[in-house]
Design goal:
This protein has ten helices and 15 strands. By secondary structure, the protein is an alpha+beta fold. It has two domains: 232 residues, DD-peptidase/beta-lactamase superfamily (Beta-lactamase); 197 residues, no CATH class. The strands form four sheets. Strands 2-1-15-14-13-12 form a six-stranded antiparallel sheet, sandwiched between helices. Helix 2 crosses helix 7 and helix 6 packs across helix 7. The N and C termini lie close together (11 Å). InterPro entries: Beta-lactam/transpept-like, Peptidase_S13. GO terms for molecular function: serine-type D-Ala-D-Ala carboxypeptidase activity. Keywords: Carboxypeptidase, Hydrolase, Protease. This is D-alanyl-D-alanine carboxypeptidase/D-alanyl-D-alanine-endopeptidase.
Length: 443
């Protein structure tokens, strides 16, 4: 019977030849938990990890913050003024807004004042990661990091796939939100859209162009000011909750303080938010994790402090930190690590007390998150993994399970890619090969 090593080794060059990706750099690290054997193909070379960088961030967040960690949003009020104090909640949205307003109504509040100030000082440092491309900053996946966040700090348009050409619309719940846009779009039958979003400086005026997928006819753009967006959305939710809402409002950035009544609402625990990082690959949530790690550890620059804590924690675990770790999400092209390093992190997490939370946060091949559209492997084989995609970069790191038992830990990283679909075919072939070997051993 051919060993799994014998099956793997020809895969890389054959894929390069058949796909035309002759210039691609392929690195793979693999560990068999049953045989206690390792395999490597260019596995110690530094490569761009893309969103596989989130694995470092989320693993250290579980260690430093704990699975039950929560962010808190406070509202201080008098009859004539509200002050919203952001605590960094990365998932604040309709549910949290309604809970906060319900608390106010329980205290007898029946109207929203015309003055709504905000305290966004909990995260006083950088709004974007080091090395984020300027052209990305208007895109929904590159929303700015604030202590006061609402609906991932992005605006979402939808189009009807039955229309002859894409006509973007905002949901009715956006109410009086001031957003202007011009779109020049065409339909594509591909699974993925190829759309560019551009926003004018210091405004919510957008230009949107490209090819929109009929299968997923949605476009997102980053808001210019999350605190302003927060207040506008809160006004809408207040009106829906039956509070009297003024036609206009004024407000400014202020520090918390003074004799005001207070109420607040907590975020869900970290263990419930982590799937947004690893399964759905939400960059904003990952960056807030890094900010929070830094804030809870002290210091002045939360980002730099967070980076130092990540590296210190990895060393304490006996792991070599990435060659370059510059943001929490992996959106930066400046990050560097090797497949071997990611594989060793995943191996270590198998024995971590929060492993079940960590594993459950990963996307399931063919079922959830960024892997939902992939072809699942035949039962009882399942794969839980983190994807990573940037221009020219495609990565996948995670676990292959037989039933509930992890069998393989792997990291497959490809840089210098021409077509993403080519690497997805390689990932599929790689995982099928491992699954076939398990079946052969069983038979």
């Amino acid at each position: 019977m051919r060993t799994w090593r014998d099956r793997l080794e020809p895969l890389w060059e054959r894929w390069k030849s058949e796909s035309g990706e002759k210039g691609a750099q392929v690195g793979c690290a693999l560990f068999s938990l049953r045989r206690k054997e390792t395999y490597g193909h260019r596995d110690e070379e530094w490569m761009i990890p893309a969103s596989n960088n989130k694995l470092w961030t989320s693993a250290v967040a579980l260690e430093r913050l704990g699975a039950e960690y929560r962010w808190q949003t406070l509202l201080e009020w008098t009859e004539d003024r509200w002050l919203i104090v952001g605590g960094g909640d990365p998932v604040f949205g309709q549910r949290q807004a309604e809970a906060l307003l319900a608390e106010l109504k329980g205290h007898g509040v029946r109207r929203m004042p015309g003055r709504i100030d905000w305290d966004d000082s909990a995260f006083p440092t950088r709004r974007w990661g080091t090395g984020w491309a300027r052209d990305d900053l208007s895109e929904g996946y590159a929303a700015p990091v604030h202590a006061l966040n609402m609906e991932l700090n992005r605006i979402a348009w939808v189009a009807d796939p039955e229309d002859p050409y894409p006509r973007l619309r905002l949901p009715p719940s956006y109410g009086t939100l001031t957003v202007q846009w011009r779109s020049h779009l065409s339909w594509t039958e591909e699974e993925e859209s190829d759309v560019r979003v551009m926003r004018a400086e210091r405004s919510n005026r957008f230009r949107i162009e490209g090819a929109l997928s009929r299968q997923d006819p949605q476009v997102t753009g980053a808001v210019w000011s999350p605190p302003h967006f927060f207040m506008e959305r809160l006004r809408w939710f207040a009106q829906e909750q039956g509070l009297a809402v003024p036609e206009t409002w004024t407000g400014r950035r202020r520090k918390s303080g003074g004799r005001m009544r207070k109420t607040g609402v907590d975020s869900p625990p970290l263990k419930e938010c982590l799937a947004l990082v690893n399964a759905d690959s939400e960059n904003l949530v990952a960056e807030i994790l890094l900010h929070t790690i830094g804030r809870e550890s002290g210091g002045k620059d939360w980002v730099e402090q967070g980076i130092q804590i990540v590296e210190q924690t990895l060393r304490r675990w006996g792991l070599e930190p990435p060659a370059a770790f510059v943001d929490g999400s992996g959106l930066s092209m400046h990050n560097r690590c090797s497949p071997r390093q990611l594989c060793e992190l995943l191996r270590l997490m198998l024995d971590h007390p929060a492993f079940s939370v960590f594993a459950d946060s990963l996307a399931v091949y063919g079922q959830t998150g960024t892997l939902k559209k992939r072809n699942p492997l035949p039962p009882p084989i399942t794969v839980r993994a983190k994807t990573g995609t940037l221009t020219g970069v495609k990565t996948l790191s995670g676990y292959l399970f037989e039933g509930r038992t992890p069998v393989y830990v792997f990291s497959l990283m490809v840089n210098g890619v021409r077509e993403e679909r080519n690497v997805e075919n390689l990932q599929d072939a790689f995982l099928r090969l491992l699954a076939d070997h398990i079946r052969d051993e069983r038979d």
